[in-house]
Amino acid sequence: MLKRFTRMMLRGLLSRRERIDHFQVLLMQAIAKTERLEARVPVFLKRIIQRAADLQGCSITDFVISTLDKSARETVREHELMKLNAEDSRIFAQALIDPPKPNAALRRAFAAHSKMVSMK
After folding, report:
1. What pTM was estimated for this model as a whole?
2. Is 90 exceeded by the pLDDT of residue 41?
3. What CA–CA distance (Å, rounded) separates 107 from 110?
4. Which of 56, 86, 83, 88 is nearest to 70 (CA)?
């Protein structure tokens, strides 16, 4: 894999971004603990993955790791963002601008928290 990548780089077939991405993957592999991940895939899917890896000048393993990393980070990011419709946004903003007065349960919770946590 490295020999193939080096040949492509020397021939100028890889963009700067592709070289940086590849070296980032190699660096992560060198310094990170690894765990095994296995998957059985249909033949047609493996062929598509192999073709995509070949087009990027990397091994199937590097391609899968890179692709899974991007996809996993995007999935986590999407689930960590709160998306509100216009009405919910208005209600949320109004609660920030003019918050309701604390009820008895909130006052008790604040008092209990204050006893457990000392402010210095």
Report:
1. 0.48
2. yes
3. 5
4. 56
